[in-house]
């Protein structure tokens, strides 16, 4: 009784203290005070982590293991609960206080029995996670599809779509991109095999539909990097919850995961719909389509980014833009995240900068909405957010993390946030155990945990050093999230971004207006499209800014450093981060040292060409010709003066060619020569044009492949760069550089056998050196070139850019006539084409040529004048 009386008096004292604090805050409802924060309550963290780990392990476990684990944990939990209750009863009888009440800063519940109860809760959560994971894992083994996949059988299946269809074109790895496909996740409900058997099931699969692109005047779905003038496949218009009937080949999944099989549908016709989508998904589809229509008139980057930022619709995100966001660790802005929901809920609750001082601000109190009604409205917004953005795991994860941030705004007490995050993790892994193996889920939890634990302390430390409060909060949040997430990102990308924190800071102020205005456009588009277009136009400015920051950051020469892409590398990065943080605490006491480190970091990121040349020797002084290392493709540069160069081909990757040109210091390009329209020569054109003064683009007259030719014309038109066509006999000069086009012939009646044989070939003179650039000419065109009027001019060149990445298909007569002193080959490391061919390399060396290739030697630069010839690699 004495113990209970003491507890009552302490509770009454706490209530008096809270009243005094609220009175001191001016009587505003919900005013908080730092004293109310208290120690962190960590009791829910062990159950959440235990459920997480159990789910990850038990997804592949046999049913016997699942059953044994669940029964054993429940039995042990029952024993611990009994012991805990007995202990509590004994404490109440004797009046003895447990050790936990005497240890400050530990929240255990206050009585001796509660540690046992907490351990029992951990065991119960482990049992629940084992059962949930076992059931979800069994879904992949249930039904006939796993067996059919092993036989690669063809079936007729009825499936319910569970995700948005998305148009996928893998990155360029050869002359042309891989075939376009529409991908979506689905649950197979009925399977009909060729022997006439029909089986009812519910099996998760990935459906891949190979589609044919058809010409049309507009395409709101197509990527701006390819095929934007084609009509989109009708498969892209399907909504989640739609049932379709398909004839497909069943194949095993490549890497397991949460699907039982892959259904490859080789049918580009209109899909056979046997079940309409639900009313909620039809409404969500109407809203999303309205947002796409409202953004049609925006600039390409804003048009692509805004739907992704608002509702996760990434159909318009180009591979180049996606890569830029990954390079700068801004990929979270391309997907629905908890911050999206938080920003909208802030309109009801109030700005996050006041969360620790005032609980209820924003529109709700100004409109006279009660606290309970505000909570209901917040719940309705959360539900609508999940429906519109699709209730897939990533959106559910975002809603849960957004709810945690909402709790921060609603209570102003950090003490309650870690339990809320733990609760969200626990519920999510029980609902969908596959999240326990998701890198995205791990990154979301780490980022949210960083904002709740590290960021407040770091912000306070920065404010103590006279950093403005808003800047301190933003800097602490970005740095804390990067510190915890960087090791996981390194596992995924084998790279560490050096510009992640500044890029996240630069886009921070633009995310909120873009999101709010984007959601306003989303809500008004179905009823007032002109208003929605105005709102989308306003949102396009901050969205465009975000894209510009990503592109600029990714294009910096030192934007990132390579790092081991393994968990060992992640551990090393984590140790390096801890060491850096410990050293940073000491450096903060010495402003001059901080400034010096900042300058060094800036120089490492910018890598000014003069400084880079001094430190690394690259590029060498007075270089004449450079071959960029862009993987399996071609991108070369002819020096034409300080900061000026003629670019021949653009490679397959805009980021790589842009980085190469920045390293070479190229800011002005009088001419870009695209030898032919294969993607490994032209797909990187946006990187060449980015931020540089370009005079013209010259191409071959053979406009095939037509999709890539259209892509080049569109990119040139968007930047106002004229496009001309090359023909044999054309001669040009710029500065000390001159060249002559020796192929293709200008006779329109001569039709090449394919794009390679239509390649533009150049004979170049630079400072007394003669260079022959052959594009991708095949032996028939090489022999024709020898017989052409330019044939006699090709003898005895100093440098040969070997045709077609050094393939085995070379004309010996042309190699003998050229007799190069130096042969350079552009090829990707470990490419599947066998480039460069050993026979070609051996033949060139037998002629006395020095042979170098980018797959082994990296980027290459030719130096020298006249008889002097040198070459350097990076």
Structure description:
The protein is α/β, with parallel strands linked by helices and 874 residues long. 48% of the residues lie in helices and 15% in strands. An 8-stranded mixed β-sheet has the order 19-18-16-14-13-12-27-28, with no helix packed on it. The chain has a 7-stranded mixed β-sheet with strand order 20-21-22-23-24-25-26. Helix 26 links the parallel strand 23 (769-773) and strand 24 (799-801). Helix 10 packs antiparallel against helix 12 and helix 16 (469-493) runs antiparallel to helix 19 (567-587). The radius of gyration is 32 Å and the shape is globular. The termini are far apart. The model is unreliable at 17-37, 97-113, 213-230 and 352-359 (pLDDT under 50).
Cα gyration radius (Å) = 32 Å
> Could you say which overall geometry the principal axes of the C-alpha atoms support?
globular
Report the end-to-end length measured between terminal Cα atoms: 80 Å
Number of strands: 28
Describe the biggest sheet? Answer: 8 strands, mixed
Q: What share of residues are in beta strands?
A: 5-15%
Q: What's the pLDDT, averaged over the residues? A: 80
Major sheet: arrangement of strands: 19-18-16-14-13-12-27-28
